[in-house]
């Protein structure tokens, strides 16, 4: 099992550019989560999906952020346009219904200049 | 809204000593998790506590849960340097949504 796979691991971009982060959950997991981690705000849940359907996006900061899950093995988190305050580590995590383990990916470290 | 608070947020201790990290949460939940994060790394699951009075132990770490008090503890016994990390508790809200505490940065000095 390769675990939750995220790409890119590091991204440096300039303000105003579009950023797309990608996630492949563990096969068989039906829940997928996007978290953001910063020193100031800690770990925040942005959005989560169940069976590819967004269930709760109340944590998405604003309209510049969007997330999709077109199939069970792929999700994207897009920021357009990006701003310096979006600089953070973005984690994707997945879990399976009835199981009690949420497995995190390695994270994508985003720096917006 | 579910709130999860950890105490202390920073902890510096000597090898060989014992200490406890506390995790309080504001509303009823049936699951509580403890995670470890090393600098620049992802989160690693340590324990899942499912019921009142649950106790789990792994090496020098022991976690317990009191659902009536809405309190979990992570106890470190005879600390060693390798346990230096940030420890998070997280509480389930609804089916699978985890709400995390602020994290406790633990530094263990020789």
Write a structural description:
The complex is a heterodimer of chains A (113) and B (110). Chain A is mainly β. In chain A, the strands form two sheets. In chain A, strands 2, 4, 5, 6, 9, 10 and 11 form a seven-stranded mixed β-sheet that branches. In chain A, strands 1-3-8-7 form a four-stranded antiparallel β-sheet, with no helix packed on it. Chain A is globular. The mean pLDDT of chain A is 95. With 110 residues, chain B is mainly β. In chain B, the strands form two sheets. In chain B, strands 2, 4, 5, 9, 10 and 11 form a six-stranded mixed β-sheet that branches. Chain B has a five-stranded antiparallel β-sheet with strand order 1-3-8-7-6, with no helix packed on it. The radius of gyration of chain B is 13 Å and the shape is globular. At the A-B interface, β5, β9 and β10 of A face β5 and β10 of B.
The coarse silhouette of chain B is: globular
Portion in strands of chain B: over 45%
DSSP summary: helix tally of chain A: 0
Largest sheet of chain A: 7 strands, mixed
């Amino acid at each position: 099992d390769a675990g939750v796979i995220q790409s890119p691991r590091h991204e440096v971009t300039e303000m105003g550019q579009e950023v797309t982060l990608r996630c492949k959950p563990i096969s068989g997991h039906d829940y997928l989560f996007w978290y953001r981690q910063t020193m100031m705000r800690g770990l925040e849940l942005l959005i989560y999906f169940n069976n590819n359907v967004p269930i709760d996006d109340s944590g998405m900061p604003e309209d510049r952020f969007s997330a999709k899950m077109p199939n069970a093995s792929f999700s994207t988190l897009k920021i357009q346009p990006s701003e310096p305050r979006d600089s953070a580590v973005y984690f994707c995590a997945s879990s399976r219904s009835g199981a009690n383990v949420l497995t995190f990916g390695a994270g994508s470290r985003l720096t917006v200049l | 809204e579910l709130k999860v608070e950890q105490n202390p947020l920073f902890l510096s201790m000597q090898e060989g000593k014992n200490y406890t990290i506390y995790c309080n949460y504001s509303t009823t939940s049936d699951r509580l998790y403890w995670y470890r994060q090393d600098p620049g790394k992802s989160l690693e699951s340590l324990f899942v506590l499912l019921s009142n009075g649950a106790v789990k132990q792994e090496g020098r770490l022991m976690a317990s849960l009191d659902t009536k008090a809405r309190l979990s503890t992570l106890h470190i016994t005879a600390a060693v340097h390798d346990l230096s990390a940030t420890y998070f508790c997280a509480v389930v809200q609804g089916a699978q949504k985890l709400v995390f505490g602020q994290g406790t940065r633990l530094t263990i000095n020789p």
